[in-house]
């Protein structure tokens, strides 16, 4: 192998003297071509990073989320005899259905750290404000976050939500039907008040059963946060065939 | 740089092309598997939560 390589090189050397200028480029020419190659490399790297963050992370996250969702459904099916109101021991507590976003069901898990959200799920806040789970029955705010792009991009189409659109949260035993009543298209990422049990920025003053969806905006960046608020309209019992409520048909 | 690598690959043009392809795939694999996941949290593209920090 090495011998052939040497041979070709010698061969190239031997034939070189004719096209003289091509054979020994000057130092500057070498430096310029090296610089050019480095620039091309950086460009390709950046392009690959875009492919990675907008496509590959979705592939990975969706795969993981699907598997987890299956586990949760399995768990529900097999633990049917446990009493009502008992929270699942698994990570997934339920599914979010938002017809306006047109992305089917989104698994909801505890926490909003990147380790949770990167698996293609929506997470409910535990910090800086603890979300009130609808299953608790208490008044409060069920605050959720999910990715806008990459990692499943579960809230990519959050801007499609309008006042009056349904947001349905499905647990083992109940369908919680919320209606959107307020949207904040842009706010600071430090605006933790949007998660308050009574989110005053949404216009509500009294305690109630609220749901808050947060993600980043504008798309492909995370300069600001996009917030959607909904209020519980009714709770439906899940029947034997898990017939979805009217809003999801 | 790439010219230098090409000259140091063994075999004829076809073998070189094949080896280059394998090298490129290996680099892409390492990037997607290790480098990008490491770099991503350091870049401000994907923070979706509101918080105090």
Automatic annotation (TrEMBL), chain A:
Keywords of the record: Hydrolase, Membrane, Transmembrane, Transmembrane helix
Disordered: annotated segments: 1-23
The protein's name: Class E sortase
UniProt biased composition (Acidic residues): 1-10
Record keyword Iron-sulfur present: no
Pfam families reported in the protein's UniProt record: Sortase
NCBIfam families: class_E_sortase, sortase_fam
Active-site residues annotated for this sequence: 147, 216
An annotated Gene Ontology molecular function: hydrolase activity
UniProtKB/TrEMBL annotation, chain B:
Tagged with keyword Transmembrane: yes
Keywords annotated in UniProt: Membrane, Transmembrane, Transmembrane helix
Superkingdom field: Bacteria
TM region(s), chain numbering: 12-36
Transmembrane helix is among the record's keywords: yes
Protein name, per record: Uncharacterized protein
Species this protein is from: Streptomyces lucensis JCM 4490
Source taxonomy: Bacteria, Bacillati, Actinomycetota, Actinomycetes, Kitasatosporales
């Amino acid at each position: 192998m090495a011998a052939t390589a040497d041979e070709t090189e010698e061969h190239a050397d031997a034939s070189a003297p004719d096209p003289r200028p091509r054979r020994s480029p000057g130092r500057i020419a070498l430096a310029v071509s090296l610089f050019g190659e480095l620039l091309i490399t950086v460009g390709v790297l950046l392009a690959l990073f875009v492919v990675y963050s907008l496509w590959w992370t979705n592939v990975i996250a969706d795969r993981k989320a699907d598997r987890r969702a299956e586990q949760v459904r399995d768990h529900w099916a097999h633990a049917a005899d446990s009493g009502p109101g008992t929270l699942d021991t698994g990570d997934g507590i339920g599914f979010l259905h938002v017809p306006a976003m047109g992305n089917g069901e989104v698994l909801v898990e505890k926490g909003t750290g990147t380790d949770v959200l990167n698996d293609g799920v929506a997470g409910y806040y535990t910090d800086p404000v603890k979300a009130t789970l609808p299953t608790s029955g208490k008044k409060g705010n069920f605050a959720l976050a999910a990715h806008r792009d990459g990692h499943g991009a579960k809230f990519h189409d959050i801007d499609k939500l309008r006042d009056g659109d349904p947001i349905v949260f499905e647990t083992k035993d109940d369908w919680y039907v919320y209606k959107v009543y307020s949207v904040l298209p842009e706010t600071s990422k430090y605006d933790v008040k949007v998660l308050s049990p009574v989110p005053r920025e949404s216009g509500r003053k009294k305690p109630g059963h609220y749901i808050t969806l947060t993600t980043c905006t504008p798309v492909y960046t995370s300069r600001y946060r996009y917030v959607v608020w909904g209020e519980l309209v009714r709770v439906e019992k899940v029947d034997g065939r898990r017939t979805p409520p009217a809003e999801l048909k | 740089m790439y010219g230098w690598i090409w000259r140091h690959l063994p075999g004829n043009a076809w073998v070189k092309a094949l080896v280059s392809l394998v090298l490129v795939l290996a680099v892409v694999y390492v990037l997607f598997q290790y480098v990008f996941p490491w770099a991503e949290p350091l870049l401000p593209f994907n923070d979706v939560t509101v918080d105090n920090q």
